[in-house]
Amino acid sequence: MSSSTAGLDMISVDPRRVADLQENLAEVQARVDKAANGRPVTLVAVSKYMPPSDLQLLYSSPHRQLHFGENYLQELLHKSSLLPADIHWHFQGALQTNKCKNLASQIRNLWSVETVDTVKKADALEKGRRSVLEGKGEVGEEGKKWARLRVYVQVNTSGEESKSGVEPPEAHALCRHIHNSCPSLTLSGLMTIGSRSNSLSSSEENPDFKTLVSVRDQISKELGVELGLSMGMSSDFEEAIRMGSTNVRVGSLLFGKRKTKEEMDELKKRTAETEKAR
Predict the structure, then answer these.
(1) Rounded to whole angstroms, what are the CA distances from 132 to 74, 108, 127?
(2) Start and end of every Alanine racemase N-terminal domain (predicted)?
(3) Which terminal Cβ of the chain has fewer Cβ within 10 Å, N or C?
(4) Across-strand partners of 166?
(5) Which residues contact 121 (CB under 8 A, 6 or more apart)?
(6) At a CB cut-off of 8 Å and minimum separation 6, what does 93 contact?
(7) The predicted structure's pLDDT at residue 160
(8) In 3D, which of 59, 98, 92, 65 has the Cα closest to residue 76?
(9) DSSP 8-state secondary structure symbol assigned to residue 163
């Protein structure tokens, strides 16, 4: 374990938790591989509210989980300061424009931001990433250069008011802007959450996924670039993969019942007290 994770040694871990997490990861990865049928698909472990020890266990498992998804900047900053530097963090939460610069400039191993839905947010991420690519922070203590930040444009494919994302016709202009005007960002693809009813229906292909595939194909042709798809969660990731997803976001199947924010705050408090007493 690296020095950055030394504090995790003080967290008591139930051996049964170790076995459960490793078994869950092996099962989910096998299902991903079967659905992908030889095609590369990234499994992102959605780890919001999960204690750093759980993430460390998946990272240290025989399957070596590298990709983790977080929804809140402060929680991501906390975990990234504790866990290994080669973890690939995905930001998957609601993106606030005023936090984009810090998100892009403070986390070296931030792999992608999957929830870009406005030009303002893209420009703020560009500004934050450019500040470290061109400034003093280009090469850090570990001698690793900062990389261009991968981003996905979030598309509201279900038309639900409760969902974030641009409307499908508006995705073209935003993707063009990122591709042509944000040199510190890399347009990786499109992302959607879709409606719960469509994800649970087994009568036909998920219409939200079909919409995202269609929009992606149009934009890829227009820009002349190969774009990925981030779609599919615990209830529907296999169908999403069969329909072309290159990035799936799975939480409950890996970690079990998610901790509440209150429970997570209490765990942080107890961990801090333990580290202080060392």
Answers:
(1) 20, 9, 9
(2) 20-257
(3) C
(4) 155
(5) 95, 97, 100
(6) 48, 70, 71, 72, 115
(7) 84
(8) 92
(9) S
**Residue pointed to by tokens 């990865």:** 29
* Look-up of token digits 């990861």: 25
- Specify the amino acid at residue 33: D
pLDDT average per 10 residues of sequence, the chain (278 residues)? 46 80 96 97 97 95 95 96 96 95 94 98 97 67 73 94 92 98 97 78 82 98 97 95 97 84 66 55
Provide Rg for the chain, Cα atoms. 19
Segments in the chain forming alpha helices (H): 15-36, 52-60, 73-82, 97-106, 119-134, 171-181, 196-200, 207-223, 237-242, 252-255, 261-276
Report the distance separating Cα 114 and Cα 117, nearest Å. 9
- The single-letter code of the amino acid at 131 is S
**Cβ-proximal residues to 217 (8 Å cutoff; 6+ apart), any chain:** none
Q: Do 191 and 163 meet the contact criterion of CB atoms below 8 Å apart?
A: no
What 3-state DSSP class applies to 165? coil
Give the residue from 252, 261, 191, 217 showing the smallest Cα distance to 46: 252
